[in-house]
Amino acid sequence: FYTMASSCSASAMSQTARVLLVLTLLASPATALPSPTNSTPNGRCDPRDNEDDCTGLCDLYLATGSTLQGWANGSSLCGWPGVACDSTSQRVTYLWLSYNSLSGTVPDSLGSLAALQSLVLSSNSLSGTLPDSLGSMAQLQQLFLDSNSLSGTLPDSLGSLTAMDPLDLSSNLLSGTVPDSLGSLTALYDLRLYNNSLSGTVPDSLGSLTGLHRLLLLNNQLTSWPSSSVCSLMDTGDLTNCILSNNPFTCPLPTCASACKATCK
């Protein structure tokens, strides 16, 4: 009897202890579980997105007034409107945002989109200067920044975009000279710099663009065209559309000037 009583007593005490433990746990403040770490800027992208791509696109979003719908909401940037990614690497390869009423500037960090092949920001209201970092986009094949209000000079770094075709910076407020470095764009088929305020000389280096078929430098402030290197492209039949009209050129001009609709004083 004593043994049974002792056993029942111990069992009752054990049950009481379990109840007290449960009550104590229920009364204790809940300990929050750690949330997933997101290394992308302020959680605006999916944690699996490339951090450089996220930074570049989020900076563009902020620099243009945070008006892009469906952007920077924590979802994968590969699903944002106007963005396309490589199916394997998930790096951003295409960015098409023309006719989006974007105002503001092009951020320097956009150059961190190292896998970008096509950048189309045409027909917006972008202002400010072209960042040197654009020359870091080694894979870039298409650059359309036409019909904006971009100002300042053309960065020499554009000459690093050796896969580029076409390059369209027309109808902006760009000034300064046409950089010699553009002669390094050996894949270039179409160069459009018209309707700006570019001045100085038509660079001799443009004659190195043996694949060039269209050269549009009309409606600028170019004053000198001493070299006939561009004419050699016309002689070989490669350059078929050359327009340099409405520039205040000083005579003399090369022999092909009339074919390019250029005149001088």
Account of the 3D structure:
- This protein is α/β, with parallel strands linked by helices and 265 residues long.
- It is built from three helices and 14 strands.
- A hairpin with a 6-residue loop joins strand 1 and strand 2.
Task: Spell out the blueprint of helices and strands.
Layout: H1 2-27, H2 51-63, E1 83-85, E2 92-96, E3 103-104, E4 118-120, E5 125-126, E6 142-144, E7 151-152, E8 167-168, E9 173-176, E10 190-192, E11 197-201, E12 214-216, E13 221-224, H3 229-235, E14 241-243
Parallel strand pairs: 2-4, 3-5, 4-6, 6-8, 7-9, 8-10, 9-11, 10-12, 11-13, 12-14
Antiparallel strand pairs: 1-2
Report the strand count. 14
Q: Give the strand order of the largest sheet, numbering strands 1, 2, ... along the chain.
A: 1-2-4-6-8-10-12-14
Residue fraction in strands: 15-25%
Enumerate the spans where pLDDT stays under 50 for 5 or more consecutive residues. 1-14, 16-39
How would you concisely characterize the structure shown here?
The chain is an alpha/beta fold. It has helices at residues 2-27, 51-63, 229-235; strands at residues 83-85, 92-96, 103-104, 118-120, 125-126, 142-144, 151-152, 167-168, 173-176, 190-192, 197-201, 214-216, 221-224, 241-243.
